[in-house]
């Protein structure tokens, strides 16, 4: 009888702890949501002014997103163009900026978007990128296949003076910064070379190009 009573008390105490935890989580979610819905931080320099010549790479064209795609994303500013090197490598460059990430607009992970457009993600890994100042940052490398076509892609989130390779860490930092700074603004950047199924030279080109564009993009985005 005493054992049953102890079990009952323990179960009641466990349920009480779970209930308190749920209330705390709901309160935190509501607190973050209030920032997530209202914070808007304008871009410092429009991405239309992003350089058309970066080292040896020169922009070939500027492209527009389809109106339907732009509406779904809710993107506030973007640059979408091809850069070509003297050796003939063409890198598709897409940088998008959001004044806030909330229920109406925000980042869409390529891990979800690319399969939706018919591409299969064959592998992903985190790679180091060397910046001109000697520092290193990490970005995400992704290999894609659609039938006999291949693509190699680098992508990252450039948010409030951070370079973030992981969707999960981007979300964590967004929550923390929404509490500390009332800000959820940020950018998503993606580079693609078509026709590569893992070529080392192509990865080196992407790595060098990413190392050049990251500090240039930082001039456009508001820091902390």
Computed CA radius of gyration, to the nearest angstrom: 22 Å
CA-CA gap between termini: 61 Å
Instruction: Please report the number of helical segments.
Output: 5
Report the portion of residues in β strands: 25-35%
Instruction: Give the low-confidence spans.
Output: 21-32
**How many strand segments?**
9
Average pLDDT taken over every residue:
84
What pattern of helices and strands is seen along the backbone?
Answer: HEEHEEHEEEEHEH
What number of domains? 2
In short:
The chain is of the alpha+beta class.
Question: What does this protein structure show overall?
Answer:
The protein is α+β, with helices and mostly antiparallel strands and 224 residues long. It folds into 2 domains: 1-38; 41-218, no CATH class. It is 38% helix and 31% strand. The chain is built from 5 helices and 9 strands. It has helices at residues 2-38, 67-73, 110-116, 167-180, 200-218, and strands at residues 53-54, 57-62, 77-84, 90-98, 120-130, 136-146, 149-159, 162-164, 186-194. Strands 1, 2, 3, 4, 5, 6, 7, 8 and 9 form a 9-stranded antiparallel beta sheet that branches. Strand 1 (53-54) and strand 2 form a beta hairpin. The chain is globular, with a radius of gyration of 22 Å. The model is unreliable at 21-32 (pLDDT under 50).
